[in-house]
Write a structure and sequence with these properties.
Blueprint (H helix, E strand, L loop, with lengths): L4 H5 L20 H4 L7 H33 L5 H20 L4 H6 L6 H16 L7 H26 L2 H46 L3
Length: about 210
């Protein structure tokens, strides 16, 4: 009878805590109830437009590289035309990298964070891609026209959108999305840690329950 006293004070199966996942209607965890929030439509549209602009800038790079090769190899070695096209290649590459919104570039070119300035740069690249037609190939001239007019349209859209303060709105929503994502990540880590602690507590209580019968 003396050996039965510890077992009477030990917690019974009904007193043990429920599993971390829970059961029934009240056992849902916040992670199970939480749904992924839909993306911001403005950020999605801006991301797609950045991809289109970057692709257009790459087309300008290709066109200007071909034009530079044509200038150096033909037309009696047009040095000035070739150097002009080399500058166009460098600036077009810069426009393409700028569309990635790389923090290093934005840090040293704060003015290009604003859409009107970015649009003016794109219009400048479109003009120098179209200007100084020193090639005779009709297919290359057609590519110059396509690339320059596409980038010109992208630049005009940037300028108009910047005047309408869409760039400021986009940066504000982007900061909120980053903060929301970081908060969700921190909450998920806390929930994971809580489930681990509950599992350890459950294992410890089960161990004490078994020792109570010994």
């Amino acid at each position: 009878m003396a050996r039965e006293e510890p077992s009477s004070s030990a917690p019974g199966p009904s007193e043990l805590p429920p599993p971390a996942g829970g059961g029934g209607s009240g056992g849902e965890t916040p992670r199970g109830r939480r749904r992924r929030a839909p993306g911001d439509p403005l950020l999605i549209v801006c991301g797609c437009f950045s991809v289109v602009t970057a692709a257009t800038a790459l087309l300008c790079v290709a066109v200007n590289v071909l034009s530079a090769v044509q200038s150096f190899r033909f037309h009696g070695g047009d040095i000035f035309g070739g150097v002009f096209r080399c500058y166009a290649v460098v600036i077009s590459l810069f426009v393409c990298v700028l569309e990635t919104e790389w923090g290093f570039i934005i840090k040293f070119c704060k003015v290009l964070e604003y859409w009107p300035a970015r649009g003016m740069l794109q219009i400048f690249v479109a003009v120098i891609t179209k200007a100084y037609p020193n090639v005779d190939r009709s297919d290359l001239i057609l590519l110059q026209d396509i690339a320059s007019y596409l980038l010109l349209a992208c630049g005009l859209i940037y300028v108009i959108s910047g005047v309408l303060c869409l760039g400021v709105l986009k940066r504000s929503r982007q900061k909120k999305a980053i903060s929301r994502g970081q908060a969700a990540k921190d909450l998920e880590e806390l929930e994971k840690r809580r489930e681990e602690l509950e599992a350890l507590l459950l294992a410890e209580r089960c161990s004490d329950f078994r020792l109570g019968f010994c």
